[in-house]
Amino acid sequence: MLIIDGVTRRFGEKAAVANARVEIPVGSMVGVIGRSGAGKSTLLRMINRLIDPTEGRILFEDTDVTRLRGRELRNWRSRAAMIFQQFNLVNRLDVLTNVLTGRLNHVPLWRSLTKTYTDAERTLALRALERLGIAEVALQRADTLSGGQQQRVAIARALLQEPRIILADEPIASLDPLNAKVVMDALRDINQHDGITVISNLHTLDTARHYCNRIVGMANGHIVFDGTPDELDDAVVRQIYGTEGATLDERITSTSIVPGGKLATAATPA
Fold this sequence. Notes:
By secondary structure, this protein is α/β, with parallel strands linked by helices. It has one domain (2-267): Rossmann fold (3-Layer(aba) Sandwich), CATH 3.40.50.300. The chain contains nine helices and twelve strands. A six-stranded mixed sheet has the order 6-7-8-3-9-10, sandwiched between helices. A four-stranded antiparallel sheet has the order 2-1-4-5, covered by helices on one side. A hairpin with a 2-residue loop joins strand 9 and strand 10. Helix 5 crosses helix 6 (147-160) and helix 6 (147-160) packs parallel to helix 7. The longest helix has 18 residues, at 177-194. The radius of gyration is 19 Å and the shape is globular. It starts with a strand and ends with a strand.
């Protein structure tokens, strides 16, 4: 169980996240939705401890994540793997080496510095790439790939960390609809077949409803909804995204993934 217990993060006088409280069972597929600036990314980065809470606690099983330091903190960041919108690959390295960097916390320091990996580790990386349908690009430089391929490389790298949780910070925001579907299908497969908890920030409401068994809605740093997709009615959506007077961009209008695997242009209600 991941427990967010009264977590607040302030930047100066502004609270990017305010008194957030939520409990997420192991194996959940959670979509975090809200307008830009709602606090979604800050919440995920606090879970991973890329930034520290100003107040409150983050607990996972018997561990108080907010108290971790040094080696224990590095271990936690390996268990709570981050996937970013901009992929964060090393462009000059080949795909296989990028994936193998997911093992850095599992190998001695000298091996991490020299990028020395065993045959077993290389096989593990190739299997992850094969699972994601991109084994054929293993020896290509990362910067020769499409955006969708690069995001799948980032997912493969996360898998090599042997995570308990995958935190996906807007993983499809910079992708076209077809690649967005491939990436979301991959995250759902990992969730369902590996039992890994997936928490993903998503701009598109339809995508969250289609892929996630639980949705957390944020507005102005506060969690204003926590429930199933079926419980997310029009009144709650208006609370999350704003009033009917909002502009089209603020209403999160985008091409989205709908049931049946089809793609459709849909405007999220405001």
